[in-house]
Design brief:
- Two copies of one chain form a homodimer.
- By secondary structure, chain A is α/β, with parallel strands linked by helices.
- Chain A has three domains: 172 residues, 3-Layer(aba) Sandwich (Molybdenum Cofactor Biosythetic Enzyme, Chain A), CATH 3.40.980.10; 78 residues, Alpha-Beta Plaits (2-Layer Sandwich); 154 residues, CinA-like (Maf protein), CATH 3.90.950.20.
- In chain A, 40% of the residues lie in helices and 26% in strands.
- The first copy, chain A, has 14 helices and 17 strands.
- In chain A, the strands form four sheets. Chain A has a six-stranded mixed β-sheet, sandwiched between helices. A five-stranded mixed β-sheet of chain A has the order 14-13-15-16-17.
- Chain A starts with a strand and ends with a helix.
- The model of chain A has no long low-confidence stretch (mean pLDDT 92).
- The interface between A and B is large, with 70 and 69 residues.
Chain lengths: 415, 415
């Protein structure tokens, strides 16, 4: 089954908003076994939308539109759909009442325009919108064997409606048996092409499960997707392939599915009954902020010091002034003193010290922008890692934060 | 002039990547006075790409493709372009040499495939790629009055090539006189619809300059764009409109163009010769991290304490244990003691204390998730603001950080 996605809205053509609906729908539809082969965007213009939908319905079996279901004169997607499939429009009573209720409950004034949202193509299936006022629509042209589905434009309404109503409809309508299950192996520390090189044979030879590599802000995700009659069977296929590829990349896998570096670190700290404190210089609190993104992180994170000035490093963390004078604020020794200092001061089992040059200024001879030291002090002794990161100030901060979280993870695995 | 954008690449149809090229090109082309009326995505399939480009060249004057210029067998955009415009392909010697040089300089092994990138449609203008190996292509069909432009897919290559070569070509080719200048008024504190309500009359009545509202992670940007014969004239038009709308929204405007809340705060601290330190609880270091995103922030940011535990609040910041016991760790009094405590401890002129409940757990009777206190102690005395934010843990942290930076900005404006 060939699917074409048609996104409507002049704001797309002006480049004012990013189209997130198309990748969402594409991923979902591909997982269900449909082939999305065209994605088209068109503005709120009757003639052009009609032409685009005409072309779409000729070259695809299913056309899914997003946007243009609202109450304004520019919202014309349902009308154009009705026109193309030779349907009249009528006021759908249930939808009208629901819209009236929506306004009454919020004590808002409803204008006549709002009832446009309840005008529907004859013979359409009306799909409830659980997150907004505009219902969705499914219109089937039995004779031609074509289907047009109109979804609302706001991403949270569209995603909720697709998962709650459209996916089940498509599965039943096309007798899609079984389930599709994905597992994501999240990796850090190896580049995309190097990772691909190691597991290339599995990427090329697999049709079920399939393997995909996705770069996600410093991490590479390996997604395994299996189709099978039952979830158990799908999980079996996934585990089998996972068992084959793990030996090639195992040291870089830190978690699966929604696990982040900070949730994994949190679990390891809880499992080992350890608390942690940080002394951050070049990252300015970013690593602590990421650790505290995890609900319940107050169980193991006691606190941190952001020590931007040398005085704070000396007075608050006990870094010897002579070390800073002789070795520099950005040095292995300073990082180690910071880690020990914060550990003692905040009475934790683990302390982390991070110092570096985020740039664009601040480099000195032999110490370029991007030079970073990350020290960890704890039950496993003191270790310190040196890095030379590339990129902007924001890049250096982000890469340092990822590296620090990953070093902490590895440290906790070895104690 | 009607433009159609054609994005190629199977990864788009699988929903694996976001299409950022289409909004970039749309915004740039609209600013030049072109009308982008269709955006189409198609995979690396010869037949389908040919049909899509055929349709595009029929309904548009200019077709701009992105992607498919690489060295693999799946990179077919130039071939399909040549086919449609009846051109043969030839090896472009300069491009071939440049690619060979690129590999030699990096001591990489070049495969025969890489020379595919130097195969060009006859009569095409070849556009240098300053960020990668695949040159761009402009092919004009004089008789039909149509133009096809092939750009590389990687966003940083495409944006650089468009600005350096394609925009100047289009301006000269279509005799686009004058300049287009934008200014962004960045606002915080008023919702999009409320802001729109205040300046609606100017949005509706303007054609030059135009006004657009853009929501950007908690801020609303008001973009004024003017077209004129000279930059001076355009800036005059912008300033005139800015003068008209400012009285309606002035208290919410914090900066223009690339100014962020943290750069503005930094400038105010420098102008007043003040230093600052923070005590962060619920934000976990996020506010300090944002302040240190500004190059040179070490001039005014001395350091911070992330005080997740009550012990740190008491022992390191001097919050009286009785206050925490009686009023709670999340209270106006605790926030104020934190602000004063960090100011004294780190010997700064300004101290900030932030405490709240980021959720999802931690709410108590009368203290719901999202309750946040932000205190500022400094030359202007002590002030404390209470907020009740909605949303996830990440939302609450983000909204608290924005509010804290804005409160600090307002505080510094009044001293």
């Amino acid at each position: 089954m060939i699917v074409e996605l048609v996104s409507t809205g002049t704001e797309l053509l002006l480049g004012q908003i990013m189209n997130t609906n198309a990748p969402f729908l594409s991923a979902r539809l591909n997982a269900l076994g449909f082939s999305v082969v065209y994605q088209t965007s068109v503005g709120d213009n009757r003639e052009r939308m009609k032409n685009v939908l005409q072309t779409a319905i000729e070259r695809a079996d299913i056309v899914i539109t997003s946007g243009g279901l609202g109450p304004t004169q520019g919202d014309i997607t349902k009308e154009v759909t009705a026109l193309l499939l030779n349907r009249s429009m009528y006021l759908h009573q249930d939808s009208a009442e629901q819209i009236e209720r929506y306004f009454a409950e919020r004590r808002l004034c409803m204008s006549e325009n709002n009832l446009r949202q309840a005008m529907m193509p004859a013979g359409a299936e009306i799909i409830k919108n659980t997150c907004g006022t505009a219902p969705g629509v499914i219109v089937e042209d039995q004779a031609a064997g074509k289907i047009i589905i109109n979804l609302p434009g706001p991403p949270h309404e569209l995603t909720a409606m697709f998962d709650a109503s459209i996916a089940p409809y498509l599965k039943e309508r096309f007798g899609i048996q079984g389930v599709i299950v994905s597992r994501v192996l999240r990796t850090y520390g190896l580049g995309e092409s190097a990772l691909e090189e190691r597991i290339k044979q599995y990427i090329l030879s697999q049709s079920n499960p399939t393997l995909a590599l996705l770069a996600r802000s410093g991490e590479i995700h390996v997604r395994i997707t299996a189709r099978a009659d039952s979830e158990t069977e799908a999980l079996g296929l996934i585990s089998e392939l996972e068992g084959q590829i793990r030996p090639h990349i195992n040291e870089y896998i830190f978690g699966i599915d929604n696990e982040t570096l900070e949730t994994i670190v949190g679990k390891l700290l809880i499992a080992n009954n350890l608390t942690v404190a940080l002394a951050e210089s070049c990252t300015g609190g970013l690593v602590t902020s990421r650790l505290t993104d995890v609900p319940g992180s107050s169980r193991y994170l006691v606190g941190s010091v952001v020590c931007y000035s040398n005085e704070i490093k000396i007075n608050q963390l006990g870094v010897p002034a002579a070390i800073i004078a002789n070795e520099g604020a950005v040095s292995r020794q300073t990082a180690e003193y910071m880690a020990k200092g914060i550990k003692d001061k905040y009475s934790t089992e683990v302390g982390i010290g991070i110092t570096g040059i985020a740039g664009p200024d601040g480099s000195t001879e032999g110490k370029p922008v991007g030079l970073v030291y990350i020290a960890i002090a704890g039950p496993g002794g003191i270790v310190c890692h040196q890095h030379n990161f590339n990129g902007t100030r924001a890049d250096v901060k982000h890469r340092t934060a990822l590296a620090a979280l990953n070093h902490l993870r590895q440290y906790l695995l070895t104690i």
